[in-house]
Amino acid sequence: MREEKNKQQPRIMREEKNKQQPRHSGGKERPAEAGERGKKMITMRDENETMIAVKNVNKVFGKKGGAMTQVLNGAELEVKRGEFVSLMGASGSGKSTLLYLIGGLDRDFSGDIQICGQSIRKMSERKLSKIRLGKIGFIFQFYNLVQNLNVEDNILLPSLVAGKSRASLQKELDDILEITGLTDKRKQMPAKLSGGQQQRVAIARSIISNPEIILADEATGNLDSKSGAEIMELFRRINQEKGITILQVTHSAKCATYGTRTVVLENGKTVDTDALRVESERPASRIPMQFAFASQRS
Ligand SMILES: Nc1ncnc2c1ncn2[C@@H]1O[C@H](COP(=O)(O)OP(=O)(O)O)[C@@H](O)[C@H]1O
Ligand SMILES: [Mg+2]
């Protein structure tokens, strides 16, 4: 439905729509105006849709009889369509582990994880691959670019491998190069780019397949603070303009503030900091003190 909407509406109109409608009105779809019913209802998404659901997830590394580490212990998380959630926590608290479970990269856990309402733990490998390729984009701390391909070809590579033609991707490529600020670098080789630019190529590569969800693990962990801020601005733009739901792992309190909500992993459990604020009924900052001064580490 999102693709259909993108095709039908030029970007400027989508921006207008984003401005007019808060993403989380808390309700279902806004009723259409008289005369535009039908058309509106077809093009609108269910803003209340749960994109990621983590239910009572436990994850243990190691085998019975040997050294075992329980990393996740009843973790819970719900991410709605259009949210930009920051996942924080001390080093070794299990942030990457949880992100990889959500991305279906590791299915050795107990509990349930659903992507767009579909339980992934026992899903066939084929169906899971389809979800990973079609719905999820991954961004890692290290950009994993192919060094002997230029920017454009790095961005196109996964789509070409998936069988799409270069011609069919051209318009989307131009659009994404513009969004990521790489238009004048399109023929450049990765080695000639700064870290921030290389990360932007990795982001462009992940959004050209039109994912519904981006999972980012310390995307700015290898960058200086200025480049890091640029990447966060880009995430914010992708979230707002393209409507892509983002779940990012970050050590940086500053990066976390670019998101719409922060969740902290502690003792294998998730703590929603916004929920904490409501419970205590005082105007606390969005991020607990112990993370507020955390430096940007990997
Ligand atoms: N493949 C693995 N085998 C054994 N232990 C692991 C493995 N991956 C992660 N761990 C352990 O799980 C814990 C959480 O790791 P991780 O999810 O990478 O933490 P974070 O991303 O929050 O820094 C750490 O104690 C780490 O040593
Ligand atoms: Mg990690």
Would you summarize the structure shown here?
Helix content is 38%, strand content 21%.
- State the CATH architecture of the domain at 81-110 and 125-296: 3-Layer(aba) Sandwich
State the low-pLDDT regions, or none: 1-43, 278-298
Proportion of beta-strand residues: 15-25%
The coarse silhouette is globular
Mean pLDDT: 82
CATH secondary-structure class of the domain at 81-110 and 125-296:
Alpha Beta
The name CATH uses for the topology of the domain at 81-110 and 125-296 is Rossmann fold
Q: Tally the helices: what do you get?
A: 12
Following the backbone from N to C, one meets helices and strands in this order, namely HHHEEEHEEHEHHHEHEHEEHH
**Strand element count:** 10
What are the distinct ligands in this entry?
Answer: adenosine-5'-diphosphate, magnesium ion
Query: How would you characterize the largest beta sheet?
Result: 6 strands, mixed
Q: For the record, what is the CATH homologous superfamily label of the domain at 81-110 and 125-296?
A: P-loop containing nucleotide triphosphate hydrolases
